[in-house]
Specification:
The protein has 2 domains: about 1-40, no CATH class; about 55-189, Zincin-like. Helices cover about 40% and strands about 20% of the residues. The chain has 5 helices and 8 strands. α3 crosses α4 and α4 (about 120-140) crosses α5 (about 160-170). The longest helix has 24 residues, at about 40-65. The relative contact order is 0.11.
Length: about 190
């Protein structure tokens, strides 16, 4: 097989067959007649992340074309429509100079603040806004603290519910509390 990752990503993913193994899902990918590869674990995750990134780049380029980076409330509305079909309740979003170390933060009383003096580009700030909106989604869905919606378990700020939502809206790779600003980098406008 050639050494080009573009050769096998999207076409292979759609033609692959899926079978269960003892602990992992195993994907068998047929690229050409007689050429079979099997991926599982971290390698499978990396391939799927690349495929998802390729598929969403076109729709995100359209989203960014209509974005006004001077109006973060409007950016909230556009991201809400794109990723949650407008279902998240509207909350105030402000960008202000701050001495805090964070790029942004979500207040559980219903606000998002973005740090405007950290040297971030507008696309990086948009990634931070999406990170904070994932906190908003978790708060609206599960509430902070112990939640019946989470099976009576404790829901924490950067816990599994938040990480699952971050992955759903397109963050790839390892997701930590620092993940955010890189989300829209590389998307052509």
């Amino acid at each position: 097989m050639a050494n080009s990752s573009a050769m096998y990503l999207a076409p292979a993913y759609t033609r692959g067959t899926k079978s269960a193994t003892a602990h992992n899902t195993l994907y068998t990918i047929n690229n050409q007649p007689g050429d079979t590869m099997e991926y599982k674990g971290k390698r499978r995750r990396a391939i799927l992340d690349k495929v998802k990134a390729q598929l969403r780049e076109a729709s995100e380029a359209q989203l960014l074309d209509g974005m006004d980076f001077n109006n973060w409330g409007e950016a909230f509305d556009m991201l809400n429509t794109q990723f949650w079909n407008g279902a998240l309740p509207k909350i105030p979003v402000t960008a202000e100079a701050t001495r805090k170390a964070q790029y942004g933060w979500y207040g559980y009383k219903g606000y998002i603040k973005l740090s405007s003096n950290k040297g971030l580009s507008p696309l990086q700030m948009l990634g931070v806004l999406l990170h904070e909106m994932c906190h908003h989604y978790v708060e609206v869905t599960y509430k902070h603290g112990y939640s019946a919606a989470a099976g009576g378990k404790r829901v924490i700020g950067h816990g599994k519910e938040w990480k699952a939502e971050m992955r759903r809206v397109g963050y790839t790779g390892k997701i930590t509390r620092y993940t955010g600003k890189e989300r829209f980098e590389g998307v052509s406008r």
